[in-house]
Sequence to fold (622 residues):
Amino acid sequence: MIPLFHVEENKLTSLNGEVSTFFEIFGPDLEGLDINAVDRIFTDLEKNLINTEAVFKFYWLSGKLYLNCFGDFSLEHGKIIPRNEPVATFLRQEQARVRFYDNYLTLGNDYLRILSVEDFPETIQRFEANSYPDFVMCFKKIPKVAAKNKINFKRKLHFSALFKGMRDLDSENAYYQSEDLLNEVTTDNKALFLVECFFLVRAKTKEALDQQTDRLLAEFKGKNGLLFKEERALSYFYQSLVPGVPPSFKRKLDLPSDYLTYLIPLHRDVVFEEGLELSSRSGKPVYLDLFHKEALNFNCLITGQSGQGKSMMANKILKYELEQGTKALCLDLGNSFRKNALYNKGQVFSEKFNPLQFKSPRYLKEFVLSVIDERLGKKEEGRLFEVITKILEQGHSSNFANFISELEKEFSGISYYFAELNPYFTDEVMPLNDFTYCDFGNYPDAMKAPLIIYLIEYFKHLSGRKIFVFDECWHLLSKNADYIAECFRTFRKENASAMAISQNMDDFSETQLGRVIIQNTYFKLFFKQALSESEFLDAIGKSLLDSVLSKKGAYSEFLFLTETHKKPLRFYPTPLEYELFTSDKSDTNHFDVYMKEKGRFLPFKDAITNYTKIKNPQRGGV
Fold:
């Protein structure tokens, strides 16, 4: 059935001896580029086509782009990677029995139909080909002299329309288009190509195949194009579409190079090659990797209005990282992460902790500064650091109370700042857990800033890859701005990621600490919010952000920003993920009722799984 003589890796030899190679094309992501950058990429692609001389076959299969070359081809933008097993890639399986019928064929358990293009629409939009179903497009450049003769012949056919008494606008337009194309081909700015294109309609049943075929025929006709359902020559054309088999061009059309450029789905939705799976707006899978080796740091900033899904996304990242073996510390301000912590068996942080568990003078200086309500000058801060260092070296501080007493000798009255907090201190050493969850609401306001300083030091002592989730608590740390900034800058060296969450980036950027955090977060996830153009968000980014919109119960959408990415992404939670991550009051109340009535008799993981199955019986709760 396969009309090939030999296949070795990505090299194919046809029965007639023609040798070709098979590649996968990884195109650039054009979604976040400005119009001038996109123009340049399409212009460069057209130049690449004009400079070709051989025969080529492009394959658009399951949203991936492949190239079968019978000569040399260079691509200015994107990568051309050798792809082995070209025939299996085309068939979508290693081998299967093919049966031909009147106007369709079966390949294993699949039904297929071939629709050839009889006439392309007069105009085509950029990126339009990315929405096409599977197709194979064969082309070769027409030599310049022959191309000029073809164009000139068409120009002469429509020349008489210029002198008709009743104007023939279509014929006039065709004349002027031919005139322009002739000039462009003459100056080598464009070229003319022989092109044939075949759509491959695939379904699991004959009924579904007919429905998809009718839909595609109608859509193409609606664009003033025309498709032909292959029947008598079905076997011949199917074999000619196999990689390595030279095209016959029996369904050839003449197309200028600029139109051909738009028929190549070069745009590819991509962020990273692996990691947490999300979705582009077109439905293609894309991957987010916080610990990607090319990232300047692993920190992440998530901002957005309430109810737009920022907690859902932060929870998803946390859950994914835990599944990868990443250690985590979560500082939760509004119970947004409580169910996730219970599900993943996070250790709830004690109400009491020992500030002297860690003997770093710098840390203890920041801990003290976070408690006192007056700002010390640089000189006094230096003296505080020196005193703390001496206390630690002399070993006079067996517990935190003794430490404060020693400090009181040099800084009179400082112990009064800690009087209210003493009930929250202990001499016990906290174990370093792989996943620690801290409910910020369990502590008085005066305790929150020093608690954060302690938890940062705790986090630093975790070994291996780790992530720290901060939920909207930045206003408490203004006195420790330099220290927090240093932590954000140095976390990468410790294989650590800090995930900062805030409601509005403009408010965040108005503080010194906020600006430092923004500058030291490589990954930025902006949910729906009103932002102004700034050094952190250019006009294109703002335009993309203004188009972002989450759909409750379906997906959370956000603008993903790094120094090299600018792309709207979506997170579609499973039913279980939705129940784990939602902070919606109505959802939470319904779950709490279930837990009081039935769930309290089960381990939490079983309880929420059962609840999800009850709520989503049609999807099994997965």
Remarks:
- The chain has four domains: 4-142+191-262, 269-349+432-574, 350-429, 584-622.
